[in-house]
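A note on notation is needed here, since sequence and fold are reported together in a single record. The reader may check this reading against the record printed directly beneath this paragraph.
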Amino acid sequence: MGVRGWGYLDALAALQAAGPLPARVRVYLASGLAAEAAGADLAARRSGYAGPWVRVEGVKFYADGWLGPRTCAVCRGFADTGEEGVLFLDGPALARRIAPLIEAGWRIAAHAIGDRAVAAVLDGYELAWGGDLAGIAAARPRIEHASLLSAELIARMAAAGVTACIQPSFAVTDSAQVRLALPPGRRELAYPWAALTAAGVPVVAGSDYPIEVLDPLAGLARLVRGRSDRPGLGTPASAQPRSRLSAAAAFAAMTDAAAGRTLLTADPRALAPEQLDQVCVTGTEPLPF
């Protein structure tokens, strides 16, 4: 997500030419890189990297920063600083930038952590698609992280079919930051994954590596148990119940049957939550595009 230089894609293309890759790679360009090669040049570059294992699929934008440094854009000031974060793009600005990309068939993703940023991204999507909720759902634009969500924002995402790409580790590793950054009346907005799935919002899960651990089974345990005791993860913190999903829902968010199979020592959906840390990967069988 957010590849910032063509050299990365050149390397992937060379590896692809040398033989099958161990995994399929779907790439979203950083918005700045896409802007540098607009129009026909961007389309030509996109087709030039297409192959059975590598696909340039979309463009990623940033609407705000992060919770830790208090740069995510929030609707009410942080409890410890009084500031409201930084909004990089409002709805109209985002709509203007993504409109030509939508027309050219690119998929769109936007990083938005704070509730003010999520609202701005939804505004931008609604403006870019002219209020056509069915069109938005068909295009499957994403919000990356969507960490602070009110019931109203969850309802808007569900109505438009906007996909939330969540990070299971955030609710665990940010638990101390949530207590410091958000006043008591707003802490329930943080990482409400159970409410997202209950509302019917399409949810996929990513690691946010290298900020968080890459091991997907550690992420699965955190999403189901609210923590993971797998070796190498340090002292475990705990996520709130609102950030936990059933094993079936978590497994669905973290897998894609179209990508192939991951072979495990046990089916996570059939285990008790405390047994998830015992599951190991024994192999993979990726499928070509």
User: Anything to note?
Assistant: The domain at 63-258 is CATH 3.20.20.140 (TIM Barrel). The longest strand covers residues 54-62. The chain is about 35% helix and 15% strand. The mean pLDDT is 93.
